[in-house]
Design brief:
CATH topology: Trna Endonuclease, Chain: A, domain 1
Strand content: 15-25%
Structural class: alpha+beta
Order of helices and strands: HEHEE
Radius of gyration: 13 Å
Length: 84
């Protein structure tokens, strides 16, 4: 992962955490040990790389993973499924 992508993940994580503090219900259906990866519509390469990382975690660690995407009204969380 490039330094640019690491910085983007940190920035998205900070924004998501701020949103969760104000809207904790967004996590009500997310298991405690699930991973959350960030996707950005305007950066498909970044998004693909993060989803690929989540897929490896799901395969290797048998962890539930969700992708978080910022939308106009806040954030959307979607459960990821392994592609066969």
């Amino acid at each position: 992962m490039s330094n640019k992508d690491v910085k983007k993940n940190f920035a998205l994580s900070a924004a998501f955490n701020s949103y969760v503090v104000k809207n904790p219900a967004i996590l009500k259906n997310v298991p405690k040990k699930a991973c959350i990866v960030f996707t950005v519509k305007s950066d498909p390469t970044f998004s693909r790389n993060n989803v690929a990382l989540a897929e490896r975690m799901m395969r290797d660690k048998k962890t539930a993973c969700y992708k978080a995407e910022k939308s106009a009204g806040g954030w959307r969380l979607m459960r990821l499924r392994l592609s066969m």
